[in-house]
Amino acid sequence: MSTPSVLYDAPGPRARRRAAVGGAIATLVVVILIGVAVKRFADQGQFAGQLWGPILNPLDPDFNAVWKLIGRGVLATLTAAVLAIAFSLLIGGAVGVARMMLGRRSRIPIVGLIELLRGLPVVITIYFASRVLPELGVDLTGMPGGSGLWFLVIGLTAYNCVIIAEIIRAGVASLPGGQREAALAIGLTPGATMRLVLLPQAVRVMLPALISQLVVILKDTSLAAVLGLYTELLRQGNLIALNLHNPIQILSVVGVIFILINYNLSRLATWVDQRSVRKVAPKPTEAIPAEVV
Amino acid sequence: MDAITQNLDLFWSGFLRSLTICLWGAVGSLILGTIIATCRVAPVAPLRTFGTAWVTVIRNCPLTVVLVMFAFGLPEIGINADFYTFGLAGLIIYTSAFVCEGLRAGINSVSAGQAEAARAIGLTFTQSLTQIVLPQAFRTSIPPVGSVIIAMIKNSAVVGAFGVGRDLFSVGESLTSAQGYAALPVLTGVAIGYLMMTLPAGLGLGALERRVAIAR
Could you tell me the domains of chain A? Predict the structure, then answer.
């Protein structure tokens, strides 16, 4: 085992033998399961050339069109995600700072709003935006990208801005209290303390969490496909599969694209996390509730 | 507000249906997640590989893609079921990856010194596992796994949007689309229904966390 585990001691000869036998059995089971699945796919003709050809064979008449549509879908997904994360950062930053800087009583509405939006499914906020905004006379049809994109972005932003506000608050709370006291002691106003001392450090601490939230936003853009709002990657895939009658093959491609993007974002988050631990001198103490200490 | 008061029984049945989906989802994903977590920390390399692959693939794939794959992919290879079964299965499999990571984080948070100390005072492997390591790991796992379950409650709306039918989301959709009610009051009712599940769950989780919190 590469890392020492808290669960087991270093294995002796008997344990190693047992692990080897267990490993062989486990491998066998997995291989059999994969074999059954492959046979199932083959029996149902899922490996047929006409199903995979448009994706894998450059000579297939549909090959170029399929990949062009998929590329357009990826671009649409990224557009929605980038817009949503940008608005969420702007609004979420403002909401988070407002919550931290307002007095105990005047921040009640903001805390209420945060709790309310945090408890709602994001698919509801998107659906809400797409149905209620037109009812209230908000007309987004003239916006670049079409109204569907903006309903999606508004719904995603409504949910994610409060998440980001909470991430930033947690980041500021994790800083040593002396930072704020020292800044105030040298005569900075509370606003300047927040802007010049606390936020820059908090964002650094919270960068991994912010990147992880980007993964969530990217995944949630595909909700637009369920609601039929906006032709992003998943809906584009569904449309292609409808024409070519190969849902498994096209959806596998869609899934792999999502997994590749998100896996690399997650790795980036881990990398940033490890890097910041090394660079920032004192690792921020965990916010321990007072009654525990 | 008439839209809510006139259809209160519809909302209530939708709420119960969503609650049922959530309960089965929670039970299923906790069981499956525990199995996957066991694989991930097993002393057997192929099982670990399997667990890691499961988590990596499913965690990075949107729930919607998992659901579409179930609903439109599986029938292609001759596996047929109703949307309710597919939706629930997709939700359980998706959530299991996150439950697994929560449990694993708990196990990893137990410092090796605990197991070494247990060993040093002469506890056997089973004793050290059941009396020293797992109780601590379980306590540390409660916050992350609890958040995962709350997220799953919210994700049950996605399963509803997929066409399970008669759940809270579907009730809202049919009232606004087919029956022509104004969207604002109906969707407010739907939102209240979900908040009735997520807010108490959050409060209960907070209380539980405080109860089992350990000072290290």
Answer: 55-277 (1.10.3720.10)
